[in-house]
Design brief:
By secondary structure, the chain is mostly beta strands. It contains four helices and 24 strands. The chain is globular and about 170 Å long. The N terminus is likely disordered.
């Protein structure tokens, strides 16, 4: 391969570099490492491997432009001598042509150097994506902690929402069925129809009498007098019929609950199985043994009451406070009631008489619950109201609903009210001798 070599101001010389067989690869030359070894001579050139051909004399002279004698064309071994003499720095002329090259690359078998197939280790050890990426929101809360089941177990229709109240029942105006024939009845304070004896009414006198109850027909005819053992009552005010401790047996409940001076923190109820009342003969006089005394304890001190209610569905006993301002709390003593022990009551309702919707007189004097438990009656001296009780409702819940005004006859001092045992209506009676008995038939 021919080269032009220029060194500083000495000019350029042409020479031939033999690179061996094969094809010259310029890219391969560029990639070869530079030789850092110091040159052999003072010119900084290593002439040992260079082969120069003398240029044409004319060309030499033209290139130098200094009129120096042309080169004689004699062969030259490529070595430049240096004798210390001055040198004009001119190099012999060169036509710049490179020797022909066939462009072929040296043969190669295509094989790659052996490799064990292992990849180099990664740069040290790449860090984890983010050490440990935090969860989206530390710990995202569940959709709703734990979504409730559709309704877990749907409550029965009566538990979650009671059925709507039926319309208020209608009753005929009062009809007198008779008068109290027994002259001993002078201050009838309570009335109840027997569950054991057909067409028999029970009544009793207010305070001041002995522990006795009167049996009479619905027309007022006297059938008998039944005296309970256990001493005189303090103030019997109302009565009822209902279930008791022995299944299948109906009981009389006598409410010794009056307390005009509001001094009694405890009141009493007498309970005895309902006696059989003979018919067709003279009135009887019977002494009843075994009457139980049930002590009821108020949760908040003494109250005056004249209304006793017995729940026919479970035997719970209720008393309703009588007050001049019409504020009448309702207290319950839950069954089973224990004789000769304290049966603590709880307040379950609070009624207000004398203003809408319980217009009229403020003083409550008596009450009753229908034998099937579907209705509750409470009266005052001047008015009477009925509460509808839907299946599944307690007495307290029923008393929290809208009341229905019902008819009441004009009575001199009417205190007693009670449902007919067959649900056909209700009865009222007033204090006084030979007082009339009023019946209100249900339409």
């Amino acid at each position: 391969m021919a080269l032009s070599l220029c060194v500083g101001l000495l000019g350029c010389v042409e020479g031939r570099l033999e690179v061996g067989p094969g094809t010259h690869d310029a890219a391969a030359d560029a990639a070869l490492p530079t030789d850092a070894t110091a040159p052999d001579d003072a010119t900084g050139h290593d002439d040992a491997d260079r082969d120069f051909t003398a240029p044409d004399a004319a060309e030499d002279a033209a290139r130098r432009g200094d009129g120096a004698p042309p080169h004689d064309g004699a062969p030259h071994d490529g070595a430049l001598s240096h004798d210390g003499a001055p040198h004009d720095g001119a190099l012999p002329p060169h036509d710049g042509a490179l020797p022909p090259h066939d462009g072929a690359l040296p043969p190669h078998d295509g094989a790659l150097p052996p490799h064990d197939g292992a990849l180099p280790p990664p740069d040290a050890e790449p860090p984890p994506p983010d050490a440990e990426p935090p969860p989206p929101d530390a710990e995202p809360p569940p959709p709703d902690a734990e979504p409730p089941p559709p309704d877990a177990e749907p409550p029965p229709p009566d538990a979650a929402e009671p059925p709507p109240l039926p319309p208020c029942p209608g009753f005929d105006a009062a009809r007198v069925t008779g008068n109290l024939a027994d002259p001993a009845i002078v201050e009838a304070s309570g009335i109840a129809q027997s569950w054991r004896n057909a067409d028999v009414l029970w009544t009793h006198n207010d305070s001041g009498d002995i522990s006795r109850v009167f049996a009479l027909t619905t027309a007022g005819q006297a059938l008998g007098v039944y005296e309970l053992d256990g001493g005189r009552p303090s103030d019997w005010e109302d009565m009822g019929v209902g279930p008791g401790p022995q299944p299948g047996v109906t009981y009389l409940y006598m409410g010794d609950v009056g307390d005009n001076a509001s001094r009694r923190a405890n009141v009493r109820v007498r309970r005895i199985p309902e006696p059989e009342v003979p018919r067709g003969g003279a009135p009887v006089s019977v002494r009843l043994a075994g009457a139980e005394s049930l002590t009821l304890v108020y949760p908040d001190g003494a109250h005056n009451c004249e209304t006793l209610l017995v729940d026919p569905l479970n035997g719970d006993v209720y008393v309703v406070v009588k007050s001049n301002d019409g504020v009448s709390p309702v207290y319950r003593a839950a069954a089973p009631l224990v004789p000769d022990a304290d049966n603590r009551m709880v307040r379950v309702a609070n009624l207000r008489f004398g203003q809408a919707p319980l217009r009229g007189n403020t003083l409550t004097t008596g009450g009753s619950i229908a034998r099937d438990g579907s209705a509750i009656l409470i009266r005052t001296y001047g008015s009477a109201f009925l509460w509808r009780r839907v299946p599944g409702a307690t007495v307290g819940e029923a008393l929290a609903t809208e009341a229905c005004p019902v008819p009441r006859a004009g009575e001199r001092q009417g205190e007693a009210i009670g449902f007919a045992a067959d649900g056909s209506g209700y009865y009222t009676v007033s204090e006084g001798a030979a007082a009339p008995i009023h019946f209100y038939r249900r339409r």
